[in-house]
Amino acid sequence: MAYLDDQRRQRADDLTFSAERLERAGEYAQARLLYAEAADLETAVAYEVPAASPRVRSLLAVSAASLWYRAGQWDQVERVVTRFLSDADALVPESAQELRSILSDAWSQKELEAYQTSQSGVALEARLEGGAVGFGSAPSQAVAPLRDELDRVLLRTAEWRMKEPFRKKGRSRLAGKFELRELPAKAGSFALRFVFVAPGEQMLETGGLTPGDVVTTFFTLAQAASESPERLRDLVPEADYADVFTRLIKDLAPRGDLVKDVSLSSPVWPRGVQLAARTHTRLARSLRKPPEPGAPATPLELTGTLRNIKLQGDDPQIGIETEEDFIVLRIKKGVHDDTIGALLNRQVRVAGRRTFSGSGERQNWADDVELAEAEGEATDGEPESEYA
Amino acid sequence: MPDLDLTTPPESRALSHGTVAFQREVASVALDDCHGQAPVDGVWYEVGAEPVEHPFRLNWAPATEQMRASHANETDCTEDGAYALAIAAMEAQGFRIQIRAKHRSGADYLMVPAGASEEDFLKLEVSGIRRGGDWMGRLRIKTTQVRKGLELPGRAVVVHFEQPRVAVGGF
User: Fold this and answer.
1) Distance from CA of A287 to the nearest CA of B (A)
2) Which of A4, A310, A357, B170 is the most exposed, fewest CB within 10 Å of its CB?
3) Distance (Å, rounded) from C-alpha B142 to C-alpha B135?
4) Three-class SS of residue B9?
């Protein structure tokens, strides 16, 4: 019998296709209903595949479990996975491992939902994988910045949702209206777990914007950024906000060998968002400003220690100490405020340009400043080209 | 390499009608954007010890204004439209596309060689380039990607709409 040609499978594919379209349109609740319907059909076929066809059985088992996961039905994931794993010999080893991974993710989401309910906020998780991340441990220099970046990007998201004028300096006035609280870590993996809350009676001061609204918007932006910088800018027409979101999400994405992948998830966004080294590379490239037409400019890249930061006034600057020299670079006002403070007295990599003013004076500009890791920069071999 | 005609029904019964219709619709938007109208001559390229290149004729139904408006996002359009050509090309090579792959399998689709048991499926990873770019570099990346996930043989296909070219690599 051809299980892959089964009409129930075709119907499941139709439903999955429709669900994905709904997700793209932001209709997540409707999408989950269709995923559940697809999962039901896929599971029925998967159960019928005999042990004598281990590859097809494994394929459909993973497919069914994935669909229940996308439907947000964690108990169904558990039911399906445990049934197939009870006869693990009838599965190919990689698929058995994949089923365990899906089940672990489902349990994690279920716990996050429980925290969310108890804390009246929205739970989210940032999981680090690969590179120097081990079983239940990760390099502290990769972990600590992630907490701060999430805090900053969520506050910026709230400001953007509230259509606040772009904040060029200082603390967000929404700090205290929204709060990111850390939860206990889960054993066995390395994940930072948080709940994003609006402490006290803050709804009037946030214009009715809820933690759920902010987190959902953040995931929408992160998903777009993970696909391409252009897609992020399509969602955020305000240039200053687009720049800062590009920068903040770039800094959430892994850069080198310390961490290979950062997976973000939340009960409000069950599919999660995967940020890989490729995401970081693409977003970093997009921050490098092309020279204005007709204006002489040369690309500038240097590595050194960030010694000075001057954000006040109309001419913000940074100072980089290299082995040979001390170089002062101008930075665009308000763009780096969220990220540059943490880099003071650390080894950084600067990408920018050297231009000439109308009077012929040479000026150095830093468009992007990021931490330079000892292990080297992530490369994924991607050429700079227009591709999908 | 047989000609590819996106106006005729696909051979793979396993794919949903909605999926196939959608992919062909977006492919027509991308192809019209690059070529104006059908048919055009394309190149099939297969990586190997000695790379193989074959010409083929590509035909598609013209896109309507509504289709162009519906698929105005060039990145999505290129990505989704590439599936239509890749699937048609692999079917022309004797494969049956069986199922959308899921969840970190390292592939977009799974396919079976004609006449083979459905147990003997292979992975299919697809990527699209609208114009310009480095299709060979992209093919290298996708071939590396298809090696991950499920430990199965696989094919990576890069569709270049402007040239047009269907480039295949794999193991």
Assistant:
1) 19
2) A357
3) 10
4) coil
- A246-265 per-position pLDDT tens digit: 999 998 998 766 788 898 98
Residue of A nearest to B128 (CA): A388
Beta strands, E only, A67-150: 122-129
A181-219 pLDDT, tens digit each: 888 766 556 788 888 988 766 566 777 888 889 999 999
Counting every residue, how long is chain A? 388
ipTM value: 0.79
Q: What angle, 0 to 180 degrees and rounded to 10, lies between the N-to-C axes of helices A54-70 and A7-24?
A: 30
The residue that leads in pLDDT, B168 or A297, is: B168
The C-alpha atoms of residue A111 and residue A120 are separated, in whole angstroms, by 14
For A169, B21, B90, B148, the CA distances from B124, given in Å and listed in that order, are 49, 19, 9, 12
By the 8 A CB rule, do A382 and A259 touch?
no
Interface of B with A (CB under 8 A): 13-19, 22, 73, 75-76, 78-79, 82, 98-100, 102-105, 110, 112, 118-121, 127-134, 137-138, 140-141, 144, 149-152
* Structural tokens at position B93: 């090579």
